[in-house]
Amino acid sequence: MKFGSxxxxxxxxxxxGIETGDPESVKVVNEEKYIQHNPQTHEGGEGLAQLFARLSxxxxxxxxxxxxxDGDYIFGHTIYDFSSVRIGFEVFRYEGDHVVEHWDNIxxxxxxxxxxxxxxxxxxxxxxxxxxIKELIDKVFLSKQMDHFDQFVKVxxxxxxxxxxxxxxxxxxxxxxxxxxxxxxGNFVLAVNEGSNNGVHTSFYDLFRLEKGRVVEHWDxxxKVPPKKEWKNSNxxx
Length: 238
Prior knowledge:
Shape: globular
Helix content: 10-25%
Radius of gyration: 18 Å
Number of helices: 5
Structural class: alpha+beta
Number of domains: 2
């Protein structure tokens, strides 16, 4: 599958390496500098090539549905079928030709969480779209100014892919406390957010597709952040 840039292709092969066990796939990662932000994953010890070879023997399936590029960041929307099917967002940071940092947000699949548009359009609107989603997060999700919702979302043609609830309900009911990152390419913007769900420390990743300055499609994953005493590395989720 072709995803455009060399950096995107290398991330595609890296993620497929979990499935294939191909040792070439991990050469994009500078393991000496690599910072892992998945709290469930150890750093160091078993190298990625050995890890991928071991994982591939369990017949995992990895599908990359969407893949985007924003400066030194590559971010993707993925399906994992290991012992169960999960949906994830993956974020990788490059320095030069190598990946040096990784974040993710993964949850069990419920319904079809990845359906919808995949084509990247309007590259010239990347920054406008990023700024619009920043304003949406600030006003509606952080400040709970729900009267602004229709300013950002084209309600009459909006497609919702979240298994939890409609976007407006999520903005009302979920407690967003921080926006850590906004990654964008053309008509897609990924918001990396921290907050709580029923009092549980939670990471919210929200992917938006925009048309003519309004949100027309939304995907997400919601993942509990484990307590610090359970972390397998000291880098933090965000």
